[in-house]
Structure formats: structure tokens, C-alpha cells
Amino acid sequence: MALLITDDCINCDVCEPECPNEAIYMGPEIYEIDPNKCTECVGHYDVPQCQQVCPVSCIPFNPAWRESKEQLMAKYEALQAAAKKN
């Protein structure tokens, strides 16, 4: 499953640069996570880096976007392949 940023976000700017897939971006009011790019850091790290650095713990797993570790790894591989083409 992808992660999401809740309304508790304080826009501290620490999560965005930590995302290896560039899935985090500034939305209209708070940071948001593109679930099509979020792999929960699978392929990069053992744990989601945005969750590790968030000072207010406002980045839970998104229950509406469930994915297995295998699906997350496949997404990671697809993102890596697309990045090499560009």
C-alpha cells in the first residue's frame, strides 16, 4: 500500500527530499504523496524514509491503496526503467 500525508502535516519540508521516488509534492495546502510513485521505499530502503523523518507522525499507510511487497517491488522496477529511458 502507498503512504498518505494527513491533515496533521505542518509543512516542515523534511519529507519531500527524503523520497527516493519523488512521490511527495506540495499540494494546495499540505504535502501529498502520489500513490503511483510511492513504493514505501521498497527497492531503496528497509523502511519508508518519510515516516522516519516526519516530526509529527502524520504519514500512515493508505488503506485505500493496498499493495503487497511484490507489487511494490514491481512498481519500483517500473519506475527505475522509466527513469532510465528519460
Provide a descriptive summary of the structure in words.
It comes from Undibacterium fentianense. By secondary structure, the protein is an alpha+beta fold. It has one domain: Alpha-Beta Plaits, CATH 3.30.70. The mean pLDDT is 95. The protein has helices at 49-53, 69-85; strands at 24-26, 31-33. 24% of the residues are buried. Strands 1-2 form a two-stranded antiparallel ribbon.
Helix-strand layout with pairing:
Blueprint: E1 24-26, E2 31-33, H1 49-53, H2 69-85
Antiparallel strand pairs: 1-2
Number of domains: 1
- Gap from first CA to last CA: 26 Å
Mean pLDDT: 95
**Fraction of helical residues:** 25-40%
Helix count? 2
Biggest sheet strand line-up: 1-2
Summarize the structure.
This protein has two helices and two strands.
Descriptors for this entry?
86 residues; alpha+beta; Alpha-Beta Plaits; two-stranded antiparallel ribbon; 2 strands; globular
